[in-house]
Automatic annotation (TrEMBL):
Keyword Oxidoreductase: yes
SUPFAM superfamilies reported for this sequence: NAD(P)-binding Rossmann-fold domains
Organism: Marinobacter litoralis
Gene3D superfamilies, alphabetized: NAD(P)-binding Rossmann-like Domain
MF terms in GO: oxidoreductase activity
Protein name: Bile acid 7-dehydroxylase 1/3
Length: 253
C-alpha cells in the first residue's frame, strides 16, 4: 500500500512502540493521528511529526468512536491503523497478598485485547469506505501482541492472556475483512527500550539484553516502526504474526 497522504491512526502513539510507528508512518508520507491518554507527550510528538493528537481511551466505545470520527474529519477515512496502546502490570495468580483480584485481570484484558478490537472494528469500517487500489486493497491494520503470548512468564497471567487473544484475532479478522480489501497483521515484540525499560537501572537493562541471542541489545522503537513500514508496504503480508525478538524465547522467570 502506498503511504502518501494516507490517513493513519496510531493508538499509544505518544511514546514507546507507538511513537516509533507514528514517526515511521509520518516519515513515509501518512497523515498521522495519535490516539493516546497522555495529552502532553502526545501533543509533543504530533507537533514534531506534523500530525494531530486526539485523547482516546481505547477501552471505551464512546471515546474511541469520538477519536476516530475526529481523525476522519481532520484527515479523511482511515487507511492505516496501528494498535499499540496497552498496559503490562505483573501480578501472580496466587501471590503473597492472596489471590489476584478479578478486576485486575479484567482491566488488562479490557485495555489490551478489547481496546485492540475496539479500534480494529472502527478502523475497518472507515477503510471499507475508501477507494481500493489496483489490488483491491483499501486499508491495513497492524496490532501489537508480545512474545508473552507464547512464553508467558510467572506473574504475566493477564498480560499473556490479553496478548494471546490479539494473536488469535489476527488470522480471523484478516479472513473476515478480506472481502473489504483490508489486511490485518500483528507484531509480537520481545524486549524493547520502551519508557518502562528505559527507566530501569542500566545494570538491569544490561542483564535483560544478555538474555537475547542476537543482537544482544534491547530493540529500539524506530525498529518497531521499520516493521510497521514493511507490513504496510508488502501487499502479500496478511494474517501473519511476526515475532520481532532477536530469537528470544522467554524463560519462566
Amino acid at each position: 500500500m502506498e503511504f502518501k497522504n494516507v490517513p493513519a491512526i496510531v493508538t499509544g502513539g505518544a511514546s514507546g512502540l507507538g511513537e516509533g510507528a507514528a514517526r515511521a508512518l509520518a516519515a513515509a508520507g501518512c497523515k498521522v493521528a495519535i490516539l493516546d491518554v497522555n495529552k502532553e507527550q502526545g501533543e509533543k510528538v504530533a507537533a514534531e511529526i506534523g500530525g494531530i493528537f486526539l485523547n482516546c481511551d481505547v477501552s471505551s466505545a464512546d471515546s474511541a468512536e469520538a477519536a476516530v470520527t475526529a481523525a476522519r474529519e481532520a484527515h479523511g477515512p482511515c487507511g492505516v491503523a496501528i494498535n499499540c496502546a496497552g498496559i503490562g502490570p505483573a501480578e501472580k495468580i496466587l501471590g503473597r497478598e492472596g489471590v489476584m483480584p478479578l478486576e485486575n485481570f479484567s482491566r488488562v484484558i479490557q485495555i489490551n485485547l478489547i481496546g485492540t478490537f475496539n479500534i480494529l472494528r472502527l478502523a475497518a469500517a472507515d477503510m471499507a469506505q475508501r477507494e481500493p487500489n489496483e489490488d483491491g486493497e483499501r486499508g491495513v491494520i497492524i496490532n501489537t501482541a508480545s512474545v508473552a503470548a507464547y512464553e508467558g512468564q510467572i506473574g504475566q497471567a493477564a498480560y499473556s492472556a490479553s496478548k494471546g487473544g490479539v494473536v488469535a484475532l489476527t488470522l480471523q479478522s484478516a479472513r473476515e475483512l478480506a472481502r473489504e480489501g483490508v489486511r490485518v497483521n500483528t507484531i509480537a515484540p520481545g524486549l524493547f527500550l520502551t519508557p518502562m525499560l528505559a527507566g530501569m537501572p542500566q545494570e538491569v537493562q544490561d542483564s535483560l539484553a544478555a538474555t537475547l541471542p542476537f543482537p544482544k541489545r534491547l530493540g529500539k522503537p524506530e525498529e518497531f516502526g521499520m516493521m510497521v513500514d514493511q507490513m504496510v508496504r508488502n501487499p502479500l503480508l496478511n494474517g501473519e504474526v511476526v515475532r520481532l525478538d532477536c530469537a528470544l524465547r522467554m524463560a519462566p522467570r
